Automatic annotation (TrEMBL):
PANTHER family registered for this protein in UniProt: HISTIDINE AMMONIA-LYASE
GO molecular function, one term: ammonia-lyase activity
Name of the featured protein: Phenylalanine aminomutase
């Protein structure tokens, strides 16, 4: 029987659902246009992610249920080493059990099931009765990257990428659609919690038919393949069989569809997407904050970012960018306000173009 969830922790666990608070102070401004007041802004959405990320970091772990994994949860596990567990729910284990049992019933009836007792791709017209060997052969075929035994990181994925990939693939498998046992997911999450990640080639996938090569190295770690190298939390490099022994796990013999179920997905692409979105959010808000600071340093004018200016176009990203910069400048005694007294200040009649044209907002035109 598949391993049940014995690692559940109750208490402050975070089910991976979107945060409900949409009122982050950084997104507020009395100058916001009517349209941005009625829909979430980039700033408010970024703040939602950061607030949930901080909440998870404070708690230290998340619970996976196969449904609502979000950016904050991925970042917490990938970058900040928060732990992940399977939520203690019978329906999760039952769904995975039913998937495995259904496959067994099909095979008992003699059905041909693609990638289980047939070849792959152009070889799908071939048949085999040695089902575990076929799954191992699939991994051997796709573990085609070029790596040294002591890879220095130039040709392998960063640890954060691999951690995010392992987490996302586990969450997907929990849905019970892939004929994969819960035991495999629990093993992957245990390795994550112990800080063990396989060394995965940086190149080898364009995610056209799933990220087969990267995921095959993760699957090979579960098999205890001695040719797969695993990096520990202390940066030691071990063979996968030694890493499993250190983690207190036995090598797993893959079931009839578990090799295919592990590798035929886009978790690496989704992982990199989450990490990129997180960094892009920081860069975008930092850029707007730096514009506000530059305006203060140059004793510039707040009129550059007045809603009247940005609404003339009107490009949604520019409107939002102007409103955010204007919010950062609220209460500043360094910039020239719209008060009448400031209209008699000596110096430039208007700011240099670099300040006036800063809120182009192209990157925010996501709606």
């Amino acid at each position: 029987m598949p391993l049940r969830d014995t690692d559940h922790i109750s208490g402050c666990g975070h089910h991976v659902t979107a945060a409900s608070d949409r009122n982050c102070d950084a997104s507020r401004s009395t100058k916001l246009s009517e349209s941005s007041q009625h829909s979430p802004t980039h700033a408010s959405q970024a703040c939602d992610i950061w607030k949930k990320l901080q909440s998870i970091k404070d708690c230290g772990f998340i619970l996976l249920d196969g449904s609502d994994l979000d950016v904050a949860s991925v970042i917490a596990v990938a970058k900040y080493n928060c732990n992940a567990y399977v939520a203690k729910r019978e329906d999760i284990a039952d769904a995975m059990d039913k998937s495995v049992v259904l496959l067994e019933e099909y095979l008992a009836k003699g059905y041909f099931v693609y990638g289980v007792n047939t070849g792959f791709g152009g070889s799908a017209d071939t048949r085999t009765k040695d089902l575990p060997a076929l799954q191992s052969a699939l991994l051997q075929l796709t573990q085609a990257g070029i790596l040294t035994d002591e890879d220095n990181g130039l040709n392998s994925m960063p640890v954060t990428w691999v951690r995010a990939t392992m987490l996302i693939r586990c969450n997907t498998l929990l849905r019970g659609h892939s004929g994969v046992r819960l035991e495999l997911v629990q093993a992957l999450l245990l390795l994550l919690r112990k800080g063990m990640t396989p060394i995965v080639p940086l190149r080898g996938s364009v995610s056209a038919s799933g990220d087969l090569i990267p995921l095959s190295y993760i699957a090979g770690m579960l098999e205890g393949n001695p040719d797969i190298r695993v990096r520990t939390s202390t940066c030691f490099i071990l063979s996968a069989d030694k890493a499993l022994e250190l983690a207190g796990l036995e090598p797993i013999t893959l079931g009839p569809k578990e090799g295919l179920g592990l590798v035929n997905g886009t978790a690496p692409s989704a992982a990199l997407g989450c990490l990129a979105v997180h960094e892009a959010n920081k860069i975008l808000l930092l850029a707007q904050g730096l514009v506000a600071m530059s305006c203060e340093a140059l004793l510039g004018k707040v009129e550059n970012y007045h809603p009247f200016i940005s609404s003339v176009c009107p490009h949604p990203g520019q409107v939002e960018c102007s409103a955010t910069i204007l919010h950062f400048l609220e209460g500043s005694s360094l910039v020239q306000s719209l008060e009448e007294a400031d209209k008699f200040r000596p110096g430039l009649a208007q700011d240099r173009y670099a300040l006036r044209g800063a809120p182009h907002g192209t990157q925010l035109n996501f709606r």
